[in-house]
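Minutes, project check-in
Item: structure for the 82-residue chain
Input as provided by the requester:
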Amino acid sequence: MKSTVSVTEGQDSFPALVKAAEQGRVVTVTRHHEPVACVIGHERMSAIAETLEIMGHAAAMQAIAEHKAGRTEFGSIDDIPA
């Protein structure tokens, strides 16, 4: 499957588009040589949505920045009160 197909090609080969998406590939669909859509698999889309959700959460982004800067402190499981 090519990485770019026209709308007509996509209609004619929809099962192959789905199979390519399931295998992790992204297929761009064009109309008059302009990109109008992308076909991607559910697993990849879920990962993108999760990443966007994290990026939109200020506290999560701060925690990631703190960790990257080496300011994360880890404790022991024994430090958790019973």
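Outcome recorded: DSSP finds four helices and three strands in the chain.
No further action items on this chain.
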